[in-house]
Each structure stands twice: as structure tokens, then as C-alpha cells.
Amino acid sequence: ARGASLTDFAEKIGVDPAQLVQMLFGLGEMVTATESVNDETLELLGEELNYVVQVVSPEDEDRELLESFDIELGDEGDESDWTVRPPVVTVMGHVDHGKTKLLDAIRDANVIEGEAGGITQHIGAYQVSTEVEGTERKITFIDTPGHEAFTAMRARGSQSSDLAVLVVAADDGVMPQTIEALNHAKAAGVPIVVAINKIDKPEADPTKIRGQLTEYGVIPEEYGGDTMFVEISAKSRINIEGLLEAVVLTADASLDLQANAVQDAQGIVIEAHLDRGRGPVATILVQRGTLRVGESIVAGPAHGRVRAMIDEYGNEITEATPSRPAMVLGLSAVPGAGQSFLVVEDDRMARQIAEKREARERAALQAKRRVRRTLEDFMAS
Ligand code: GTP
Ligand code: MG
Fold it and tell me: Does 94 sit in the ligand 1 pocket, CB within 6 Å?
């Protein structure tokens, strides 16, 4: 249980809700049966009734909920169905070192090559392709505004990115947020590629950056380490292809990126908002399986049928395979960034799961409010 209403809790342990209201009254708490109480109160009530109340984490609770519908989040299916998927990359670095400029440069370079004259849409993630050693390779970039990149990565969890590009401005050098970004990548266990940016500037000193990062244990290949350093200019568009190649080579060398593309899709919400004309709009990243228009999905507390999918060029697509980002229309509500999405059997199941999640979120929120209210009363008395 996690912040539940007395009625729900009473049902779970098979007692009369009125008895719980009575017990709480005896403890000096005025709560109605339909009101939500916090975990501590549930534990207390349980103890009084000789029950052991186990408070489970929201993640575990959600897993249990899905299991009750015979769904296993993260299920990769049969290994024989696995195929190679593109790496998912996050760009990190200190303020003003050129993260946004670089993401723009990568996207623009690809539009010119790919869809002649195509206008890119900002959907929070995009996929590009690049030729590496004679083979066409794809890379997915998560494109979140600089100042939000950390919090967003934290919210989405480390599982959403395979690799990080660490941008360091050659005229400024290693700065506090460079180190913070580095620590994030280390904690998440993702390999990094260092992009030494702004090499067009006369005061650029790439050698200094190699030396500085070596002190932090990030050793360039040319010094015998295993991290690729690439000198670029996001502004003057110098060596963007070289950076993409380094990303692919690093992914090949240190990651075994495979996914099952034949199962029902599962993945993560990158960002979502309410569009005046189109209703709730969510950019999702498919992590396994293939998502198709017309399928029933649940995304956090939202549900619906995929009405349309739109790619980063504004084109409608009918399916999305692993590592592909897409904007999804047709949800009942706006899910939160970092929440999972998954395809389920039908609309009914989607709605049932979404409703249960929503009720739980509401209960948790109510319980939180109650705690605050009780605290305020306490402070006032
Ligand atoms: P935040 O999102 O605020 O953390 O910054 P950012 O890392 O996204 O940096 P942004 O791309 O906004 O670039 C910051 C400034 O550096 C801008 O004025 C860019 O024009 C400039 N800039 C970025 N890349 C280059 C480059 O390769 N060369 C030069 N000369 N300037 C650059
Ligand atoms: Mg930025």
C-alpha cells in the first residue's frame, strides 16, 4: 500500500472501514472513510489489528499492477528475435559550451542530406543517419533544453540513454558542470564521447582539455585511453560527421545494442504537452517492440489509441521500431516525462490500467496533503 483511502485499505485487510475511522478517532485523528491517509498511518492501523503492513515502492506497485494484467515491463521476449538497434544519445556539458548549437548542427546537417527542404519539428528527440565505414548507421539524439538536460535525464532514469556526448568549449575548458555531467554518465554506466567545441575560436586550446579530462580519468585514445575526443565547431559546422562517426564507433566498441522489434512496443515518454488543436501530444522513445498506429497504449496515467504518429520532419509514420522517437497523438491525458508507455491488448485494458494508476496518484497526493495539514495543525497548536 502507498497512501491509500481507508475504504481501500479496509477492503484489502478485510475489515469494516468504520472500524478504522473509529480507531483513528481514538488516536485523535478525524478521517472519513473515503479520505486517503499516509503510509505511516496505514502501518499504525495495521499494527493495531495485528497485520504487518508492507509499504511498497511506487515502481514495485506498478509492476504488480501490470502483472495482474499479465504484462511484464522490460520483457525482452525471445533472444532469437533480437536485432541491432541504434544508440540513444544525450548531449551534456557546461552552460554555454554549445549543446544546443551542436544538436541544431547535427539535425540540420541531416535534413539537408535526408529530406531535401524538410523543416524539422522540435519534438524532443530525433534520429539521424550517417555513413560509417561504408554502412548507413542511425543515431537517436535526445534534444532537451540545456538547463533541463540533467533533471530530465534523472527523471527518465539512466536506462533511456546508451551514450553521452560531453561538450567542452575549447576556449573555456573543463568547468563544474562538465564534471557534474561526467559523474552522471559514470553513475549511469554509459560510455562518453568528448566533443571539444568552438575550435573555430582563436583562443581554442584542445590540448589543454585533453589534459584536464585525463586528470578526471577520461583518457583520450591518442594517449592510450579508450575515450574518443573529437574537435568540432558547432557554429561553423566543422567535423560534425566526425563526431557522429565517433558515436557509432564507441557504441560498437562498448555496447551490444539489440532489441526485440517484433513484440508489443514498450518505451519511455521523452516529453509531453497539451496542444490546443491536437489534444495531449507525447514524444515517446520506443525501447523494444514496434509501435503502430491504431494500437492501444498506456503512458503513465494516460491511455488511448494511437491516432497518429509524427516524426521529427513532421511526416506521419505508421510504425516506430526500437530507438525511434515519435510524437504520438490520441492520449486521454498528458503523461509525465520519464514515465513508461506500453502497448496493451485493447482499449478496455488500457483504460483500466490508466484508471488504477490515476487513482493511486490521487491517493498519494491526498495523503501528502494530509500530512502537511496535520503538520500545520501541529505547528499552530
Ligand atoms: P545552455 O543551454 O545555456 O547550457 O548553453 P548551450 O551549451 O546549449 O550553448 P549554446 O549552444 O546555446 O551556445 C552558447 C553560445 O556559444 C552561443 O552564443 C553560441 O553561438 C556559441 N557557440 C556554440 N558553439 C560554438 C562554436 O562552435 N563556435 C563559436 N565560436 N561559438 C559557438
Ligand atoms: Mg542550450
Answer: no
